[in-house]
Write a structure and sequence with these properties.
The chain is α/β, with parallel strands linked by helices. It has 6 helices and 16 strands. The strands form 3 sheets. Strands 1, 2, 3, 4, 5, 12, 13 and 16 form an 8-stranded mixed sheet that branches. Strands 8-9-10-11-14-15 form a 6-stranded mixed sheet, covered by helices on one side. It has a two-stranded antiparallel ribbon with strand order 6-7.
């Protein structure tokens, strides 16, 4: 950690729909905006390329080995802005018929892929407001925790619903993470009550920065997302947050502050159950 440096990071907030080209235009513009505001690493939300009827994501899924038009546009956005980009919720082809993988990709500024995490925890819920989502019907779950080396130090990768499972983040911290990536498409219903609480809790208990990119607004049918993309510091303070609509929030990620918090409250050293 002592060899890492203070770096500005950005989180994006957008409203993806079934229009892939329009979504990717938005991604490109917002990544550029974050870079113009000084960000050296940018986090893009879950479902960035497509958020529509379930079958559609299977139709557009691409292999990370063979590539395709969506992956190419991801590369171009990173290269044009000259920043590392974490693409949360890339629809990756699966070997399981009728399913895709929900992949979180760490892409370097030159367009190369440095790390890939596949979402482990799948969102199967039947909410009181009538929202019913069964991610497991169309997504093959991952099984491995993944870290990447960002400009500020080690970054732990996760996706959306993973946020509710603190044991995942403890493993990422044990692997050296000083920041946690949470690209998400939190529903309006759950987000209004749980989004800030869970993100701040993960920051406090893991003594890490939390970078949370978010979907916002109306996507299709009854599907709506809460938004409020944000960055929280290791003390649990929200240091940057998006307002209404699409946009970017940026804040410095300071490894020295992580060290300071961990020295002041050495709870990670005090664990007795592992």
């Amino acid at each position: 950690m002592s060899q890492s440096k203070r770096v500005i990071a950005g989180v994006l907030q957008m409203t993806s729909t079934a229009d892939v080209d329009a979504n990717m235009d938005t991604v490109h513009g917002l990544v550029r905006d974050a870079a113009l505001r000084g960000a050296e690493m940018v986090l893009v939300p879950e479902c960035f390329s497509y958020l529509g009827p379930e079958k559609g994501k299977i139709d557009i899924a691409e292999s990370l080995d063979e590539g395709g038009p969506i992956l190419e546009r991801c590369r171009v956005a990173a290269q044009d802005a000259g920043v590392d980009v974490v693409y949360g919720g890339f629809w990756e082809k699966s070997d399981v018929p009728g399913k895709v993988r929900n992949a979180c990709i760490y892409m370097r500024a030159d367009g190369s892929i440095d790390a890939v995490y596949r979402k482990i925890h799948l969102f199967d819920v039947d909410l009181p407001d009538g929202t019913k989502l069964l991610e497991s019907q169309t997504v093959e779950p991952g099984s491995d925790t993944v870290i990447a080396e960002a400009p500020f130090g080690t970054l732990g990768l996760s996706v959306c619903y993973d946020l509710r499972f603190p044991e995942l983040y403890r493993r990422l911290v044990d692997a050296g993470a000083i920041a946690l990536a949470v690209p998400a498409a939190f529903t309006q219903t759950t987000g209004k009550d749980h989004w800030h609480v869970l993100l701040r809790a993960r920051a406090i208990e893991q003594q890490c920065y939390v970078l949370a990119a978010a979907q916002t607004g109306h996507h299709y049918g009854e599907r709506r997302s809460y938004g409020h993309a944000l960055i929280a510091d290791p003390w649990g303070t929200v240091v940057a947050q998006c307002g209404q609509g699409e946009g970017v929030a940026v804040a410095p990620i300071d490894p020295a502050f992580v060290e300071k918090v961990r020295r002041a409250v050495p709870s990670l050293e005090h664990r007795r159950i592992r």
